[in-house]
């Protein structure tokens, strides 16, 4: 029995992915927006993102549009109206460590977080 990786399974199922890496927002904040579109139709997800009042929403919209474009580029006779957001998740990226001056000559350390956003779209079976 041959074992397939997740990428091989996705390719066989016709799943297309787009990814934005090193986005300057915390993964926690990005997940709030990504959770809104998971499992929705691609058109409805774009509408949701355009009306979401969060700083990260335009970036997530850009990734979704890229995933849709990748799907149409991969398969010419694809019906865009039947695309759904099959997977959408946010991983933590590296952290930039910074120093902020504090009273009495001391310094406080803080971290600027980054995120990797991944969105996968697939054609819904009729």
Structure notes:
The chain is of the alpha+beta class. The chain has a single domain, classed as Alpha-Beta Complex (Ribosomal Protein L22, Chain A), CATH 3.90.470. 37% of the residues lie in helices and 31% in strands. The protein is built from four helices and five strands; from the N terminus they run H-E-H-H-H-E-E-E-E. The chain has helices spanning 6-13, 27-37, 42-51, 57-74, and strands at 16-23, 83-92, 96-101, 107-112, 115-123. A three-stranded antiparallel beta sheet has the order 1-5-2, with helices on both faces. Strands 3-4 form a two-stranded antiparallel ribbon. The longest helix has 18 residues, at 57-74. The radius of gyration is 18 Å and the shape is elongated.
Give the tally of structural domains. 1
Instruction: Look at the helices and sheets and give the structural class.
Output: alpha+beta
- Secondary-structure arrangement, i.e. CATH architecture: Alpha-Beta Complex
Tell me the number of strands: 5
Percent of sequence in beta strands: 25-35%
C-alpha-based Rg, rounded: 18 Å
Distance between the termini: 31 Å
CATH superfamily: Ribosomal protein L22/L17
Mean pLDDT: 92
Largest sheet: 3 strands, antiparallel
Can you list the strand order of the major beta sheet?
1-5-2
| Helical amount | 25-40%
Order of helices and strands: HEHHHEEEE
Assembly annotation: single chain
Low-confidence parts, pLDDT < 50 over ≥5 residues?
none
User: What overall form do the CA principal axes indicate?
Assistant: elongated
The CATH C-level class name: Alpha Beta
Q: How many distinct helices? A: 4
At CATH level 3, the topology is Ribosomal Protein L22, Chain A
């Amino acid at each position: 029995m041959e074992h397939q990786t997740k990428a091989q399974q996705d390719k066989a199922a016709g799943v297309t992915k787009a990814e934005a890496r090193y986005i300057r927002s915390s993964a926690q904040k990005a997940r709030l927006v990504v959770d809104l579109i998971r499992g929705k139709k691609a058109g409805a997800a774009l509408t949701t993102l355009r009306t979401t009042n969060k700083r990260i929403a335009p970036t997530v919209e850009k990734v979704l549009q890229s995933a849709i474009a990748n799907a149409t580029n991969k398969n010419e006779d694809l019906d865009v109206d039947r695309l759904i957001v099959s997977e959408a998740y946010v991983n933590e990226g590296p952290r930039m460590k910074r120093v902020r001056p504090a009273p009495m000559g001391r310094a406080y350390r803080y971290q600027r977080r980054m995120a990797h956003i991944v969105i996968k779209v697939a054609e819904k079976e009729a």
